[in-house]
Every structure is written in structure tokens, then in C-alpha cells.
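Session log. Operator J.P. requested a structure for one protein chain; no other inputs attached. Running the standard single-chain path with C-alpha cell output.
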Amino acid sequence: MTQKSRHSSPVEHGFPHLDTVRRAVTALFRRLSGDGVRSYDTSFAPADAAFGPADDLYLGAHQVASAMVRALRLPDARMVVGFRAMEEAATVELTAGPEYFVEVNDRFRIHRRDLAAALAHEATHVLLHRLGLRFPTTAADEILTDTAATLLGAGWLLLDAYREDELTHQKLGYLTPEEFGYVLAKRARLLGGEDLSTWFTSPQAYEAYVRGRALADQDLRRAPLAAAGRPERRRYARDRAAGAAAPGHGAAYRFEEVGGGLRVSFPCPVCEQRLRLPAGGGPVRARCGLCHTVLECDT
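Structure written below.
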């Protein structure tokens, strides 16, 4: 996992990896099922990440690693943590197990508050390795790992490790702070409103979470969902009449002729799997076949 520090380029913001993040969300739902993702209903607790300067280095690291293994449902895995000088924040050797050797940057000997964040990413690598889930390129695979860690309850630590001021800036992981916030908000909606606002120690991380949450909220108002606003509904009606989404406004829906009738396909706001419904049929309740979310639509 990479890290950014005061000696590297400024922290990237916004949503440059959004398409890959959404593909990662769908891939995780497909691999674990909707019920499987929902079973990770308890986020990694701040108390389990606590690792103070008075704690024994290796015993404390082992305790945090063991808690991360439990949180990600890897009961027959053991993470052995070592420290060395390196450019990355951490790396893991992916083997058949049950022991996985994780090396973390020497700076975590002193800056221990972010050790759990580094281990969250590497432990998720182990989980995805065991699930046989990966993306074809290294860059996309790292985004998949961060997305999975966040959706399964450990990635909030990676966002909380983001800190920035006039002299220093730090970010762990491959998602931008706002993208971490976006996935966290999706997780909160999935679990009925999980609130991590009191867990963030970094003000900048919380602000990024709010920006990511705003985009996740927009997903819940994309046409043809019934919650779409009036301007969005008007655009949708014009596009439906034309049989194609007009270029320029980034509509997520697509139209197609099937058996002499018009159908609309659009992404589920929870798992991003595309749903297909007859277009022009008025209000309808649809159930996503992947995550089983019931959606109120107006096609």
C-alpha cells in the first residue's frame, strides 16, 4: 500500500476512480452475496485500533493484527507483523496461509495511531486472495482492496489516517479521501444508517466523508428512481421519448429496444448492479437480484 507524506505530491481529491470503485462494489456483492456483505455489520472498533507509545511494539502490533483478522472473518489466518524501512506504508506476502507476513513502514514504530489503517488494507488483500477476487491490473486491484476494506467495516481507518495542514499531508491507500467517504456512506445506507461521525479523529477526514456522502446521496436520486428530483425527471422523460440518453449530463440510465418494447437499464444505488425494467410503465417497485434491495422506481 502506498503512502503520501510531506515529501510527496499533494493529496489527490475528488472522484477520479469512481467507475472502478463502483465496479468493485458490484464485484464484492457478487462474490459474497447481499447477505454476505450485510453480515459485516460491525465496523472495526476504535478500541481495537488503540496502540499507544507505552505498549510493547510487537505485542501491540500483533493484537491489532489479530483484531483485524477477526473483523474481516479470517479466523484461520495469522498475520505476522514486521517493521522495516520502505517507501510503501505496508506490504503483505500472499501465500496459501495460514500465516501471512506483513511488513510495515518503520515510521509506524513511532506513529502508531495509523498502524491499524495500514493493516486494514493488507488484511483485506488476504481476504480477497482467499476469495479468489481480483481485478486485472495492479492499480484497479488496489482500488478493489480499499473499496472492499471500507465496505466491510475496516476502511474507515484508512480515511481517518488522512491529515493535511500547511506543513504536512498524509493519506494511506489508493482511494481519494472523498472516495473513501463515498463507500463509507454506501455502507451506512446498506446497514440502516451506521454513524461514524464520532469515530473520526481527523477533521479533514470527516469533511471528506461529508463530501463523499453527498455523492452517495445523489445515487439515491438518480432517475428512474422515484426519489429523483423534478429536473432529473424531466430530462429522463425527454430521453425516454428520444429512446436514448442525451449526451452531456452523464445519465446513468440506458435505453434499449427489446421485443418491440423499450426497456431502461440503470445501476442499483446500493450494489451498482444494473437493473432492467420496461420504460414508460409508471411507478413500479423493483427488487435488485444481487443485493435484494427493494427500489421505488418511476420508469
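Operator note: The chain has a mean pLDDT of 90.
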